[in-house]
Amino acid sequence: PSCLFFFKQLDRIIIHQQVELLEAILGTETSSKYEIKNHLGQRVYFAVEENDCFDRNLCSPIRSFTIRIADNTGREVITVNRPLRCNSCWFPCFLQELEVQSPPGTIVGYVVQNWDPFLPKFTIQNESKEDVLKITGPCATCGCFEDVDFEVKALNEMTIGKISKYWSGFVNNVFTNTANFGIQVPVDLDVRIKAVMIGACFLIDLMFFENSLDGL
């Protein structure tokens, strides 16, 4: 799609969360805002999470959400929808799933959690719910604030990229719970699947890292 033009030559996508001052001071969850950048640090899109205060404070990190991603002119180019789901490995009938649309109203793919008692595992699917890629995380996602990598694999299990949680700058961000992620994929990957990978990154952040700095 023409609205995903900026993804065509990208093999690395950086996602940086913008933390509201009120949230940093009071610890009150406000709507998440993100900048999506290329490998040079230039913003190509920005994103805003939509949900209500009840969801954010009482249902996090299992809350439902809609994330609207717009280009620098303010035109919405990607919509990420996630229903309210259980966040326990003991309930495989309620595993995580989200839908990615681009442009809004046109489904380009899905991110589906796979049941596993030890490892975080997900499948990237196209608009027809056909498997395209796999994502496998480490057995422990809290690495004492070391970078955490989720491997992106082809269906034959060959590793072709990764989604990384970066802890660099932790000292400066300890009170703001700022999320920094990097997505590395082949440059010739379908731009629609690159858009779905952004949805996967948001889901991984919510499931494993959103409350990782609580109490510090």
UniProtKB/TrEMBL annotation:
Function text: May mediate accelerated ATP-independent bidirectional transbilayer migration of phospholipids upon binding calcium ions that results in a loss of phospholipid asymmetry in the plasma membrane.
UniProt xrefs under InterPro entries: Scramblase (IPR005552)
Protein name as catalogued: Phospholipid scramblase
GO molecular function annotations of the record: phospholipid scramblase activity
UniProt cross-references to Pfam families, sorted A to Z: Scramblase
Organism: Galbula dea
Required co-factors: Ca(2+)
Keywords, in A-Z order: Calcium, Lipoprotein, Palmitate
One annotated Gene Ontology cellular component of this protein: plasma membrane
Family that this chain belongs to: Belongs to the phospholipid scramblase family.
Keyword Lipoprotein: yes
Keyword Flavoprotein in annotation: no
